[in-house]
Write a structure and sequence with these properties.
The protein is built from 2 helices and 13 strands; from the N terminus they run H-E-E-E-E-E-E-E-E-E-E-E-E-H-E. By secondary structure, it is α+β, with helices and mostly antiparallel strands. It has a single domain, classed as Rieske [2Fe-2S] iron-sulphur domain (Rieske Iron-sulfur Protein, 3-layer Sandwich), CATH 2.102.10.10.
Length: 169
Amino acid sequence: MTDQIHDAPESECPGCELGRRAFLRDAAVAFVALAATGSSAAALPVRAIAALSTRGRVVSYPIPAVDGVSIDKANDAIVSRTAGKVFVMALTCPHQNTALKWLDGDKRFQCPKHTSKYTPEGVFIEGRATRSMDRFAVTKTGNAVVADLDKLYEEDHDVAQWKTAFITL
Ligand code: FES
């Protein structure tokens, strides 16, 4: 498994790491703003969320009441509920780690750098990326979806885990 977001030791390039985090934070704000201006936000809204609880690198989120996309800027994570399933995915594109956008009108994610496209489940549609969006390991506990941020599955390396990295409602 490769953790694309948190694998760079700060001692190697502290300025780069801080710069990248600032970029992701800013991009996440842009992500929300862009999605909020969509024409049918009520159908599949986007909102900013914070973890309900954090224990080390294990975080929990309330299970979304309706289909929609939420982002946790602090943890560079996306929570997506669609068609009776909830996924927690990396905010960044698997191609070159650019923060993804949600295009509400098209009901899909898109990378602003090379325009790779992904479904609400994070499944690759087309573009320069060579795999779908990376998914965190998740479990359901009561009314929460619990994600282990140290277990990030890549579709091409962790096939079985990636395919089952969601909870059903
Ligand atoms: S960085 Fe997303 S497609 Fe290249």
